[in-house]
Amino acid sequence: MKKILPALLLLLIVSSSFAQNNAYGAGEFFKFRVHYGFVTAGYASLEVKNATLKGKDVYHVRGYGKTVGVSRWFFKVEDDYQSYIDKEKDIPYKFIRKIDEGGYTKDVVVDFDHSSKKATVNDKKHNETSVFSFPKNTQDMISAFYYLRNHLDVEKIKEGDIIEMNMFFDKENFKFQLKFMGRENLSTNFGEIRTLVFRPYVQSGRVFKEKESLTVWISDDENKIPLLVKANLAVGSLKASLIEFKGLQHSFQIIVK
């Protein structure tokens, strides 16, 4: 299970996010079941709360994932990702990554200074601090979700279009890319939902079979809820399904219950 839940959490956070202004707010909560067929491997969640950071009103967003049941016996995963996001500018000020993946651990805090475009990375595990430059409009893996929800106009997007954004993760700048595959209706536990289908470009190799191994279904409404993620991994096929939500800013559009 190493890297599977973190990778899914990253892709759920980054790739499931497309709407108009004020698409989210404090109190919003998503919970996902990660499973191989009928076997539950783990759960992941995203939650938004109000907070204050250095005198600024921000959203404090937490993404949390862990293995459960038999999967936890074989390989324990418990990952905690947090971001503090400016409510008006939709940019991150602080990013926290605290993970335990079968004994492989990280405890990192990143502070973003957007005026100087410098990211200060505090590696608490090794007691090391380093500074990196980043380009304009850079996001972390949590804030990217909410930035795109507020700024990407899906009414103008066409099948085959590629969306790009700057991201800083693990002491590295990179371009995150999503390919729009089109629209389709999806059968879910909540009913039949109109969806937007995206294919995030991921790194092939140890976790994913190919660059386009992952597909994401997003509700085609003002909320743009991530409903389903399907991944072809090096160790088999895995899905993450939305099983619970609350605190939405807009009505959830269901075709047939």
From TrEMBL:
Record carries keyword Signal = yes
Q: Known InterPro entries for this protein?
A: DUF3108
How far does the signal peptide extend, from start to end residue?
A: 1-19
The alphabetized UniProt keywords are:
Signal
Protein name from the UniProt record: DUF3108 domain-containing protein
